[in-house]
Amino acid sequence: MFVILVYDTAAERNPKVLKTCRKYLHWTQRSVFQGELSAAQYRALMGALTTIINPAHDSIVTYTAREPGLVRSATLGLELGGPGEIL
Amino acid sequence: MFVILVYDTAAERNPKVLKTCRKYLHWTQRSVFQGELSAAQYRALMGALTTIINPAHDSIVTYTAREPGLVRSATLGLELGGPGEIL
């Protein structure tokens, strides 16, 4: 499945959130990752993030589509993302 | 169409970006909006944002799907968004 993940987490937890998201997805932009995952990988990512975030203060939203072809992406301005991008 | 918009813009331009996005979409989370737009509304929003951002420094990414039903959203932690949410 195609996954877009956006996170709004406390600064002290951002490094762990970033590290975990990077294992599964490509960084797109500040606070945004995207990529293709199997259902099992998606569950593993959600499980790992659940152990990192504080659910009373942090928020992670995912958007998933069965296939990448169902979602079109477009960029205005800088094209920031890419698998090798350094934050 | 269903639209997810994420922005990474310079602080001094954020108020204008926010104001423009709010005219068309619902705020979801820090830097993220979503909603349903016609093709004409989407073009109008992109046109308005083009006049606001500095393409050498700012980045706005949109993900669009023909129908909202093609994209599932899920939240870990806080449910921040909502049409009435105040930033």
Automatic annotation (TrEMBL), chains A, B:
- Which Gene3D superfamilies does the record cross-reference, listed alphabetically? 3.30.70.240
**Keywords for the protein's UniProt record, in alphabetical order:** Antiviral defense, Endonuclease, Hydrolase, Magnesium, Metal-binding, Nuclease
Q: According to the UniProt entry, what is the EC number of this protein?
A: 3.1.-.-
| One protein family per Pfam | CRISPR_Cas2
Q: Name one GO biological process term.
A: maintenance of CRISPR repeat elements
Recorded hits in CDD domains, A to Z, give: Cas2_I_II_III (cd09725)
User: Which residues are involved in binding Mg(2+)?
Assistant: 8
Q: Which GO terms describe its molecular function?
A: hydrolase activity; metal ion binding; RNA endonuclease activity
Q: What InterPro entries would the database entry show?
A: CRISPR_associated_Cas2, Virulence_VapD/CRISPR_Cas2
Its EC top class is: hydrolase
Query: Which family, according to UniProt?
Result: Belongs to the CRISPR-associated endoribonuclease Cas2 protein family.
**Role, per record:** CRISPR (clustered regularly interspaced short palindromic repeat), is an adaptive immune system that provides protection against mobile genetic elements (viruses, transposable elements and conjugative plasmids). CRISPR clusters contain sequences complementary to antecedent mobile elements and target invading nucleic acids. CRISPR clusters are transcribed and processed into CRISPR RNA (crRNA). Functions as a ssRNA-specific endoribonuclease. Involved in the integration of spacer DNA into the CRISPR cassette.
Output this protein's name.
CRISPR-associated endoribonuclease Cas2
User: Which source organism?
Assistant: Streptomyces hainanensis
